[in-house]
Amino acid sequence: MKENYNQEPTYIGLSGWLILFWVYLIIGILSSIFILFSIQNIYNSDLYLNFALAESVSYINGVKEIIIANIIYAILSIPLLLYLFVAFRKKLAIFPKHMSIYLVLPPIASLVLYFMQASLKASPQLLNNLYETGGTLFVSMGNLTGGILASIILILYLRTSKRAKNTFIN
């Protein structure tokens, strides 16, 4: 029996670079749920007690709003990520368009948080303590730039990939 090795590869199915979207959705859902479960810890943490309470010695106006913005973003992300997860699993034709829309949201949210951070008025030492204590609640320019670049690359892949066009057809 003679095998033909000159066949065109089939670009269909949830493989190749599409796996990145699967991982992205899983991580997004888990991190949003983690933020929601850690709300109680946030309000009992050094971050909140030292920097967000007006009675605190090291109070910085605007920190409480940044914490609340992160929580609201996590709450709004969960249903959208679950919807995208289902659309991905069912290979719905609307997935690439809706995922592209969603991929624009994290950089916009990060940009808003970045400008909220930039408006914080405190000594450099106090701000350093805040950023060390706050961890992932605060956005650096590197994280912002990386998020924008990743979103652009993923959106371009969804728009131009043969595999994405042939997979999401339901």
Q: Which geometry do the CA atoms define?
A: elongated
> Per DSSP, what share of the residues sits in E-state strands of 2 or more residues?
under 5%
Number of strands: 0
What number of structural domains do the residues give? 1
Low-confidence segments, ≥5 residues, pLDDT <50? none
Give, in order, the helices and strands: HHHHHHHH
Helix content: over 70%
| Biggest sheet layout | none
Number of helices: 8
Task: Report the structural category.
Answer: mainly alpha
| CA distance, first residue to last residue | 36 Å
**How large, in whole angstroms, is the Cα Rg?**
21 Å
How much is the average pLDDT? 84
Structure in a nutshell:
The protein has 170 residues and is mainly alpha-helical.
Spell out the key features of this protein.
170 residues, 8 helices, elongated
Describe the protein.
It is a single chain. The protein is mostly helical and 170 residues long. It has eight helices and no strands. Helix 1 crosses helix 4, helix 4 packs antiparallel against helix 5 and helix 5 packs antiparallel against helix 7.
Which helices and strands, and how do they pair?
Elements: H1 18-37, H2 39-43, H3 46-52, H4 63-89, H5 95-118, H6 124-134, H7 141-160, H8 162-167
